Amino acid sequence: MHPPSYTEQMLATMAPDQVLNQLSEVICAPQSSLGVLSPFALRQTLEAHLDDTTRSRSTLKTAPPALLIWAFSAGCVGAVALATHWQRHRGPVLALFMVDGWGVPRDPGVPTYRLSHDSVTHSTSRRLGAGDVDFYAEPAVPHLTLWRQPQLVTGWAAETGKGSERLSAADFLCRRSRAAIHRYRTRYQGLTSS
Fold it and tell me: If you compute the radius of gyration of the chain from its CA atoms, what whole number of angstroms results?
């Protein structure tokens, strides 16, 4: 529902990160702009990408990958349902980042982080399910700025039952994404080495 260049700018935040820049990216942008509301359309886009990747690598069946999902605004509607389906039926969801997904409830079975463009959106969104740590911009920024230029947005990472830490939205996304990957790799390596 916004120009694709905004998403490209958001994904550019991963480029300098040595862990995140090695991940495969799939941009789920269905043909119709309302497709981001449809978990079915998002799942079709994701599975088509996975089928293409599997065919190009080998003919062997592989387990579905673990997902790390960054979603924005209305796209959080479809992303939450996609994450829930994937977690229950396909494979692990390491983390779902809902960037200004105001009014979108979260699934408590999926590790979720909320990022908000201001403190009001932050406090009202948390009523629908807060993550262990969420981010809000201070000073407040326009809604699209949080997605387009997260490296320029500063604010607070508010951790439930603990204090807050001042950082940029890009740092929050990258740190929490790396932590989710680390937890998954540690758990997976622990299972395979015993």
Answer: 16
- Euclidean distance between CA atoms 98 and 84, whole angstroms: 14
CB 165 within 8 A of CB 172: no
**CA 108 vs CA 13, 19, 55: distances in Å:** 27, 27, 34
Taken as a whole, the chain contains a residue count of 194
Q: Residues 3-59: pLDDT tens digits?
A: 666 777 777 777 777 788 777 766 665 556 666 667 777 777 777 777 665 555 554
CA gap 70, 74 in Å, rounded: 12
**DSSP notation for 85-146:** HHHHHT--EEEEEEET-TTPPPPTTS-EEEEESSHHHHHHHHTT---SEEEEESS---HHHH
Each domain of the chain, given as residue ranges in start order, spans 4-118+128-193
What is the DSSP track for 163-177? Answer: -EEEEEHHHHHHHHH
φ and ψ of 31, to 5 deg: -55, -45
- Tens digits of residue pLDDT in 125-160: 888 777 778 999 999 999 999 999 999 999 999 987
